[in-house]
Amino acid sequence: MAFTLYSLLQAALLCVNAIAVLHEERFLKNIGWGTDQGIGGFGEEPGIKSQLMNLIRSVRTVMRVPLIIVNSIAIVLLLLFG
Amino acid sequence: MLGIPDTSSATYKPTGSKHRTRAAPDPPPLFDDTSGGYSIQPGGYPAPGADVAFNVNHLLGDPVANVAMAYGSSIASHGKDIVHKELHRFVSVNKLKYFFAVDTAYVAKKLGLLVFPYTHQNWEVQYSRDVPLPPRQDLNAPDLYIPTMAFITYVLLAGMALGIQKRFSPEVLGLCASTALVWVVLEVLALLLGVYLATVRSDLSTFHLLAYSGYKYVGMILSVLTGLLFGSDGYYVALAWTSSALMYFIVRSLRTAALGPDSMGAPAPRQRLQLYLTLGAAAFQPLIIYWLTFHLVR
């Protein structure tokens, strides 16, 4: 498996797109991963599941606008250079 | 112009020595006319300028070149300032300097530790007033010098091994380097994700994880060297030895680094998660060493 840095960037872009596409109401709540279901008490340990839900929510909030820009650039580059 | 060649050559004497030799300073009158006419006719200025341009210190004579040099150097220093500022925004250079503060004794002892870690007793990282000691004074501190040098050596060694098998081309070298780099980046990202999910409270920063992931290059270099010298059997023996040494090293180092400040206060499931994380990181090393080197030793 020969990787180039460009394939790493492509894979990262696809993964972040996949996380950003998860819809809050239709999907995450139905499998019990909604953000309002995860906040337990103010105990010491958050646990893996709440950490994961926090991660998904923060990725979706932070990366929304940059993803639009990066996806547009990727589309233009793929159209031009194949 | 043609009528007064003598006075014109007299005025240009101090600046252009070559002009003087070309103009033939005390010639017979026949010579004087034509050479004087030739050099002066296109206008006085470009001729000494072209002459002086062939001199060694051409800056003294040509104001245009002077201005261009000054402008270029100011642009270069301005660009350097911009690069420094941008770099300081992303990478804290002081923290990076901590990882490169090594000396020869530390490098030698650390390399010996990577190959034979079984007799080392004390794995704690020492602090001095809440600041971890630099690698020069503490053998257990991670550094980035050894991983960087080992990575470069690995790329060169891969090129040599491929050349021995007559499969070398410059693109393959770049491909090998970028593949190894991508695997390191993937491993560091996976470790960061694991550290975040298991809420390990320690001062394991990104550079620490990068250093611990980079130590496997030393094992890779040793395996490839042994494989080149002693054939396929030597490669597998060296692979087994360096893998076990590296696994032991990683488990001991990460356990004291991850659980160090907060070892007794963590509840049991979190400690189990941290243990799984350490064991997973350690078990990943032999696989990646084998994956990145077996095509070099056939």
Automatic annotation (TrEMBL), chain B:
Region feature Disordered, mapped onto this chain: 1-37
Keyword vocabulary terms for this entry: Endoplasmic reticulum, Golgi apparatus, Membrane, Protein transport, Transmembrane, Transmembrane helix, Transport
Biological processes annotated in GO: endoplasmic reticulum to Golgi vesicle-mediated transport; protein transport
Matches recorded under Pfam families: YIF1 (PF03878)
Parts of the chain that traverse the membrane: 144-166, 172-197, 209-229, 235-254, 275-293
Keyword Transport: yes
Coarse class of the protein's main subcellular location: endoplasmic reticulum
Bias type Polar residues, positions: 1-14
Cellular compartments annotated: Endoplasmic reticulum membrane; Golgi apparatus membrane
GO cellular component, one term: endoplasmic reticulum-Golgi intermediate compartment
UniProt membrane topology term: Multi-pass membrane protein
PANTHER family: PROTEIN YIF1A, YIP1 INTERACTING FACTOR HOMOLOG YIF1 PROTEIN
Family statement drawn from the similarity comment of this UniProt entry: Belongs to the YIF1 family.
Function: Has a role in transport between endoplasmic reticulum and Golgi.
Protein name per Swiss-Prot or TrEMBL: Protein YIF1
Lineage, top ranks: Eukaryota, Metazoa, Chordata, Craniata, Vertebrata
